[in-house]
Every structure is written in structure tokens, then in C-alpha cells.
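[job 4471] stage=fold_predict status=RUNNING
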Amino acid sequence: MSSTHLPGGNQALLGCSATELESWAVAEGQPAFRGRQLHDWLYTKGARSFDAITVLPKSWRISLQQRGLTIGRLLEVNRAVAVDDTTKLLLATVDGETIESVGIPTQQRLTVCLSSQVGCPMACRFCASGKGGLQRSLATHEIVDQVLSLREAMDRRPSHVVFMGMGEPLLNIEAVLASIRCLNIDLGIAQRRITVSTVGVPHTLPQLAELAMKRLGRAQFTLAVSLHAPNQELRERLIPTACAYPFETLLQDCRHYLAVTGRRVTFEYILLGALNDQPQHAEELAERVRGFQSHVNLIAYNPIDDEGFQRPNPETIEAFRRVLEQRGVAVSLRASRGLDQNAACGQLRRQHAAIG
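[job 4471] inference complete, writing C-alpha cells
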């Protein structure tokens, strides 16, 4: 192991395990306990610079900085807090990009919604994140920092994590799985409280299942597949990239994922007024997802600029839910949060770019 670079050739400490930091400290000519000190300052104390870690020898801290190593923290450039205390952060990366992260509190929990990429290439019509396209994928430390930044901003320990922010997680599988390992082992967030959401990328679900078992030893996180339509034709209207991923092939890959991991699949379904929210849509959806372990999570649309989609009324939402339930489909309705602060992911970033 090089004494110049951290494990994996990284330049940021955040994302490294206690064992990796101990081994690296020894390779740097330091006692192993220095690695344990680093781990404590990274994940418990939330250090942002080497200068803040005063327990380390000053000469070593200076040397690390001179060699271009960093903690890996991002800079908060904007914050929006809704009346329900939902908190959205706009964070800046070292190369001048910005990403969004959201903290969604209740009395019992704090759920953190993470981004996995800067922008998104999937171009879903109802999503603000894809309007500007994809700039790049995030590194592990940039994903992990979002949890630490929201922990600081909200002065509360996150209990649940969802990869439902900017980007398509399955186009950044290695960093997403590495961040799940870090969140689980180093920050103590149980895998069962972590959800990875995907709109569907051909050939990646089998890869995710196999890599999760290899990298994590198990795959206890929840896989959430964004369907948003009960058939291929309507899905392609909402998700242009779906033309490369036939509906039945996607469902077959979901069944394969279940067989490999033993974990049921959640299907996310955004209800768009008068487009995909009618009883016949619910009946067709029930027919497609029955027959294997799954769960449907209904989401009422959060309006964004530049699109004319409408949020369905409560009666329509309830009727849709009731049809699924009557046909034996496990179903839940996600409560909308932060509506007064542009809850849809990507909007704060777009506003910031427009001002800039």
C-alpha cells in the first residue's frame, strides 16, 4: 500500500473503514491506533479538515495536506427548510459541481435521500434531475458526506437512507455499494434501513445482486424499481430510456434479483393526474406484479417547472390504492413532504444554476 495514497488510490479519507485506516496509518509510519483515531474523527465527530484532528501529530497533518490528501467533505452552498422541517441541502464538490440531498424527519426517524450522480442521464419527464443531463458519477466519499452534512444541518442522527436523489444508482454501482458498506459498518445504519432506487438499466439488476453478495457479503438493503406505468407503451412515454428495456425483461430481472438475494422487490409508482392513475391502470399493474414477492409504493406527483403533469386528487389516489389491495398486492402510499420548498429532486440545483 502506497504511503501517498489511501486504499483504492483515493485522495479522500471518507469512505475508508477502520481496518483500512489502521493499515494505512502503519504504512505511513504511524501507530495503528492513529487509524482508529482518524475513524472516530471522520464518522463520529465529523471532522472537515486535518487541522481539526488535533490528536494527530502536527507534522503528519501538514504532510498529508501537502500531498493533496483530504477528508473528503463537501461545501454547503444553499439550504431550504420546509414548514414540516424537511431540509434540502445543495452541496458543492471540489470540481465546482453541485448535488442535492434531503433530510425527511418524523418523530421516530430521520430519512436521508441521497444523490448518486451529478445530474442524471435517464431523462424521465416528471423528474427535475434529468433536465440538465449527466455531468458525472459521484465518488464514495461524496455520497457518504451527504449523510454527515444532513446530520450536522439537522442536529440529528439519520436512521434511514434512500438512494432516490439525483442520478441513477445502477450506473454507479461500485461507489453505491462501497457507500452502503460505509453507512452500515462505519455509521451504524442497518442495511435493512437502506433503499436503492432504480428506473431500470438493462443487465444491471443481475450485476447488482452478484456484486452486493460479493462486496457486502449479503444484500439486505431494499431494491426499489421505478415502474410508474403498468405497460411498456405508457412507460416509454414517461421514461424515454425504457425503450431499451422491455417491461417483461425488467420483471424477469427483478425475479432473478429476488432469487439471488432472497429480498423482495419494491415497485415505485408515481401517480400522474389523468395519465396513469385510473382504476384500469391499477388493475393492469396488479396483473403484472402478482406472482412473486413484491410491494408497490405509490407516490403522488410533486410538480416541477417545464412539465404540465398534475398531482392527482386524494380520492383518485385512494381508489388506485384500493384496487391494488383488493387484488392481493401489498401496497403503501408515501407521504409527500417539503411541498412548499420544491420537494422534487433537482429543483434547488436548477434554481441555483439559474441565479448563478
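[job 4471] summary: The CA atoms of residues 128 and 350 lie 8 Å apart.
[job 4471] exit 0
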